Structures
1.
Amino acid sequence: MQLLSLLLLSPALVKAAHSPRQPSCDNQPNPRVPTIWLAGDSTEAPGGGGNGTEGWGQYLQYSFLPSVALVNNSAFAGRSARTFTREGRFDIIASNLKEGDWVVIEFGHNDGGTPPVNATVGDKGRADCPGVEIVQTYPTYLQNAARKFLEKKAKVVLSSMTPTNPWEFGNYSYKPSIFTYYTWLAASELGGPSKGVYFVSHGQYAAQAMKNLGKETVDANYPLDHTHTAPFLADVVAQSFVLGLKCGTGGLQDLVVNATSRLQGAVLGTCVAVNETLPI
Ligand SMILES: *[C@@H]1O[C@H](CO)[C@@H](O)[C@H](O)[C@H]1NC(C)=O
Ligand SMILES: *[C@@H]1O[C@H](CO)[C@@H](O)[C@H](O)[C@H]1NC(C)=O
Ligand SMILES: *[C@@H]1O[C@H](CO)[C@@H](O)[C@H](O)[C@H]1NC(C)=O
Ligand SMILES: *[C@@H]1O[C@H](CO)[C@@H](O)[C@H](O)[C@H]1NC(C)=O
Ligand SMILES: *[C@@H]1O[C@H](CO)[C@@H](O)[C@H](O)[C@H]1NC(C)=O
Ligand SMILES: *[C@@H]1O[C@H](CO)[C@@H](O)[C@H](O)[C@H]1NC(C)=O
């Protein structure tokens, strides 16, 4: 009786209760779902390194229903953490993101500069470039960007760089670059998961998949050089990122369409051991 009178008093409620079901909007961008912003270089960017290669970021969307999360691939070829910062690309993401969004940051391929020699040769990661900018270290750029995103109540995934072709020299061989360690360090110094910052050992997962695929397939999918992947391998590299997510603790994994058991297998392999100094 009380409910009935409530309904009678509130035509809007009555109307809402009887309005027809909305058609499914699964193929339409939904501004109310979280956006997963990707910041990175050509290995992740639309069009990859050109000449028919592709960035893995283009395939990440297939692991999320558009009604659950959207991917904005803002990775840009040729960029380092420093030039991405300097060109305002992190700022563009920061100004567009909303609470609950995720930002995946993955650099390293373009970040190795001249090693420090002295005040004039090499930049030591902190010397002044006269009149242009103050150069920071790689972890500093990552942390500065991450703090901007955290301030806006987004969460951050710091992801380690993809491998160069691990079959390049005949047999399989993968050694993480120093920037993998720096990425881990940046996540650790930011406070890790308790502060909304997660590390994905993407390079390790991608290398594992490339090991499983074998030399012939992997060589054929580095058509240009040892850095840029053909579409097939870019898709595998995206899936290896997703497995890395699923093997961690970040809430982003809950939005993934596939169960971990569907991802683990002959190609992607299984979860890998991590350095327990930093929970991921
Ligand atoms: C890539 O494509 C450009 C033009 O599209 C061509 O000039 C260049 O030689 C190609 N590079 C390689 C390595 O195939
Ligand atoms: C990604 O976001 C930027 C900034 O809002 C926008 O300019 C760009 O068109 C978006 N890209 C896609 C593929 O949605
Ligand atoms: C810096 O190192 C370079 C290369 O070794 C050398 O030529 C130059 O004289 C050094 N400059 C100073 C100020 O020490
Ligand atoms: C590759 O591995 C095989 C088997 O372990 C070995 O016989 C061969 O010498 C290795 N080749 C290179 C280039 O390391
Ligand atoms: C998840 O499943 C979808 C649809 O079944 C598939 O297209 C996609 O490649 C899968 N993603 C991964 C990361 O395996
Ligand atoms: C984890 O990383 C820290 C920092 O680099 C290092 O000191 C420690 O030895 C590592 N632990 C393992 C088990 O690799």
2.
Amino acid sequence: MTSMAASSSQSFCSLIPRTVLLVSVLVFLFPSQPEALKSPFSPIDMLSLLPRQVSWPILNYLNNADDLLPTFVGAVSSPDKSIQWQGACFDKNTAWLEFHNNSGSEFGGGTLHIKASNAHSWTCMDLYIFATPYRVTWDYYFFSREHTLEFTEWEGKQEFEYVKEAGVSIFLLQAGVLRTLQALFDVLPLFANSDWGEQSNVKFLENHMGTTFKERRPPWTTSVNVDDIHSGDFLALSKFRGPWGAFETLQKWVTGSFAGHSAVCLRDSEGNLWVAESGRGTGVEDDIIDVLPWDEWWNYELNNDSSNPHIAFLPLHPDLRAKLNETAAWEYVRSMVGKPYGYHNLIFSWIDTNHGNYPPPLDAHLVASAMTIWTQVRPTLAANLWNEALNIRLGTKGLDLPEILVEVEKHGSSFGELLAIPEQDDWIYADGKSASCVAFILEMYKAAGLFGPLSSSIQVTEFTIKDAYTLNFFENNSSRLPKWCNGGDDVKLPYCQILGKYRMYLPGYNSIEPYQHMNERLEEWYKSIPHSLKGRLAHGMKKGKAVAYKGCPNSEPEEAF
Ligand SMILES: *[C@@H]1O[C@H](CO)[C@@H](O)[C@H](O)[C@H]1NC(C)=O
Ligand SMILES: *[C@@H]1O[C@H](CO)[C@@H](O)[C@H](O)[C@H]1NC(C)=O
Ligand SMILES: *[C@@H]1O[C@H](CO)[C@@H](O)[C@H](O)[C@H]1NC(C)=O
Ligand SMILES: *[C@@H]1O[C@H](CO)[C@@H](O)[C@H](O)[C@H]1NC(C)=O
Ligand SMILES: *[C@@H]1O[C@H](CO)[C@@H](O)[C@H](O)[C@H]1NC(C)=O
């Protein structure tokens, strides 16, 4: 619920004036007494009130990287099953959950009680994150007493059932990361599969991409005539809810792209229309490459896709359509069906590999914190999404996130540097190679001859979705667009938006002539990899391949991916 998140940040603001006097006195004591942890006034307590640029280096100096991550203390699901733990500030803490129906809604809500006592010092506080797969919130406790956290209304049956079964997860954080937490809270809600999550995604993009989301004129669904759809026509998708929504939001923001997913249309020899897609399934964990009849695909997007999909239809230019070899396209697609979607490198695809850093407010610590929380709440998602990919980068096997952090530090490197190692085309995961949604489509275009003689000098795995829709491959004569294009919307886009409440803008659409080695960032990134990790990178790859990559291959990879 939005109301809950808002009340947390309000109370955070009101904390500052109360303690600001103490801070100004105590901060000066800090350099001379870093060991004064158990005195009535602990200067370290004050770190949380300093600006992040000041507090963060100090915290890093006093702690190992994994100490700064949120610690899972337990989950509460009923009043009979209370949990106890020792906090950073309060020695004795007890929590339990009580269901209620104050809202008079179908599934009611709940109150989480936390009783905190035996503080280490007068100025310390404990900082907590509370999470279900449907919401995340945080609070801090400064006084010894019973505190409550209100869940006015569960999101629906799914959250209600989840909480009854698995409970609300509680994470303890070092008080010093309070400032970091505010930044984290820009990112965490994105993953929630709820209205709140959707609004968070929109708000995040508005704030960080400086864009506004314009609502289209309803109806938000177009009745398409499939006769106007041909082989090679591109489908750009944008999702706003759940794990897909979150990854897409981060990817959109980092790549400056307004689409986060893609699929392609294909007709068989009998003229039936199909959609080929890398990333088909019930939600990230089990997504594969698949090809579905158009009606089945479109019905799913209209009625069953809970991520609130937005879809734009980008018809291929007639000249290219004439060039497209359907037999070759099908051969390629059939060879890929059933292989896993590129979820292993999902996270890494939106990290700015050239510079090894993130636009604010993200940083490596935030990524690690978010990973810790979602590892607890969505374990299979976590295992698939990052554990294996991080292990490969580090040249290790089977380490979990805290172990990875320890290992990275042992090598004098940082988690940020580890994240910055880009995905290699030939890394093989336990379930096989991964192919991203757009690499899959462009590889099909290539097989079908759309890149012509350039084919051998184009490395499509280096393309983002934006790189794909900015290619000048699409219809450029608006009078040839299908009649149903853009439905009843009053703004006429140069492509057809066929689904979605918000208008999809694709800046640079249909503008770039392909050229040799376009979008090849390989050489550049290899140079940019921190020296300390180059050896590890080579170790994580097959030996011969590592040498080849140093020279930056300008030939085709032996296999498609
Ligand atoms: C809460 O109260 C409303 C209205 O009285 C009722 O319809 C609903 O079933 C109740 N929900 C629960 C979970 O008890
Ligand atoms: C998809 O949604 C329709 C309409 O809401 C529903 O009848 C159908 O059972 C759903 N199918 C699946 C596979 O969930
Ligand atoms: C189309 O592709 C198939 C299979 O790769 C090939 O046998 C055929 O010669 C191609 N057709 C044309 C016109 O290039
Ligand atoms: C559309 O593209 C074709 C071929 O690329 C070009 O010859 C033509 O001038 C373009 N038309 C418009 C209206 O831009
Ligand atoms: C656009 O297409 C229409 C209809 O096919 C045609 O009459 C017109 O000449 C085309 N315009 C350009 C600039 O190619």
